[in-house]
Amino acid sequence: MTSLPPPAAVPPSLDVRGLAYAYPDGHQALFGVDLTVERGERVGLLGPNGAGKTTLVLHLNGILAGGAGTVAVAGLPVGKQHMAEIRRKVGIVFQDPDDQLFMPTVREDVAFGPAAAGLRGEELEKRVRTALDLVGMTEYLDRPPHHLSFGQRRRVAVATVLAMEPEILVLDEPSSNLDPASRRELADILRSLDVTVLMVTHDLPYALELCPRSVILSEGVIAADGRTQDLLADPDLMHAHRLELPFGFDPRAVTTGA
Amino acid sequence: MSTGHAHKLYRHGESPVHRLPPHCKIAAALCFVLVVVSTPREAVWAFGLYALLLGAVAAAARVPAGFVLRRLVIEIPFVAFALLMPFLVPGERTEWLGISLSVPGLWGAWNILAKGTLGVATSVLLASTTELRSLLLGLQRLKLPPLMVQIASFMIRYGDVITDEMRRMSIARRSRGFEARGVRHWGVLAKSAGALFIRSYERGERVHLAMVSRGYTGTMPVIDEVTASRAQWAYAAALPFSALAVCLLGWTL
């Protein structure tokens, strides 16, 4: 499994136990998911379309609930009584930045989360600046989001979540629709952040580049959990879960920093 | 408040009128229009004075007359209606260039034209000196129902996104050899509109999800506090108060 330092006194950023969920129409998406992400880890959540990745993500901040099992964020159980706190701790970056950026200007959008949590004035302004600094978008403060390039919008979307100082950053397909340069810029930003990351993707090279550890979610269960490089280098495992590497890509030939 | 992009009605400037807090301007414009509407139509000179007052505001805002006049074009449908009134309204008739016109109709037409034009000119001045976004802040500050302000601000944010989607759908249609010509093609256009509606609806759901994920509980958090000093209120009130004086004169004379 993982070769992480033994768990310290800090509770894991994310602790999912026996999570099962069926949609109201009867379609069951999750069949008992167990997943622990320690603080500071970057974990890739891999899986084919329809594996239940999005369903799992929406459980992490309590948007979906009502099935079996539990989710805890930094030791805090996800449930009605701590909902505001949970939503602040779990920062989800959705796939389409046009869904995420709904305010008239970048500044107001980044301020939305912390302002909803009650921050005002000087403190709020500082949060916004810090978050935009982290993604290198400070100069676009007063721009309307729809006038930015796609890569810039994705970076601002990350900032809107960072402004809430989350315990865990959950990224849904962060590399989708990005050109190679924007993709690399986003990777640099994500690497520079001092935050736990759960990255949902089927961009396997990107997972290998950023996440030392990955899990494969397939047909509603965690089918594999280990070093990303080991998972990608196992052709049978990959084939069994409809995961494919880009043409000519050899995960064993890549040396990862982590 | 400098945004890289402004809507078409706004005219960038640094005049004292531009600098007034938005809620003062909205309140002043609304009061002015109310005063104008409650002026008796027989006091023709009063409307001339109102026009002069608006001219003074335009001068203070450094908005050229041509700009305001061009924007007034939006009024044309109402003008057309007003022009019909002298022919259609029953009552005492008078002769003008050999045409029989109704006197109450003429007064009615004058009433609509004068009050309508002044009202539209006021709105044009408000819109050309206040950015759409600060207009919304002003409405929020004036305690308009928050849901209405939210809906308006989403319209601004997503108008471009939806127009863009519409454009892409039209390109996709034309790429497959479709050109809308005549009634027979309306069915296709209606289906496109339906698809656009469903897409927008689904986007609405996703946006809501993203908002809830960041702690939205039904009210927009206050990010920009707009405040107005007593002097700013007094400056903004100059317009409706001088109009009120004119109006009172109009009733007494």
TrEMBL record, chain A:
One of its GO terms (biological process) is cobalt ion transport. Gene3D superfamilies: P-loop containing nucleotide triphosphate hydrolases (3.40.50.300). PROSITE patterns: ABC_TRANSPORTER_1, ABC_TRANSPORTER_2. It is found in: Cell membrane. It comes from the Bacteria. It is a peripheral membrane protein. Its main location: membrane. Residues 14-244 form the ABC transporter domain. GO terms for cellular component: ATP-binding cassette (ABC) transporter complex. The chain crosses the membrane at residues 56-79. Keywords: ATP-binding, Cell membrane, Membrane, Nucleotide-binding, Translocase, Transmembrane, Transmembrane helix, Transport. GO terms for molecular function: ATP binding; ATP hydrolysis activity; ATPase-coupled transmembrane transporter activity. Belongs to the ABC transporter superfamily. Part of an ABC transporter complex. Responsible for energy coupling to the transport system. This is ABC transporter ATP-binding protein. It comes from Streptomyces wuyuanensis.
From TrEMBL, chain B:
One of its GO terms (biological process) is cobalt ion transport. Keywords: Cell membrane, Membrane, Transmembrane, Transmembrane helix. It is found in: Cell membrane. Pfam families: CbiQ. The chain crosses the membrane at residues 43-60, 72-89, 109-127, 233-251. It is a multi-pass membrane protein. NCBIfam families: ECF_T_CbiQ. GO terms for cellular component: ATP-binding cassette (ABC) transporter complex. The keyword Membrane applies. PANTHER family: SLL0384 PROTEIN (PTHR34857). This is Cobalt/nickel transport system permease protein. CDD domains: EcfT.
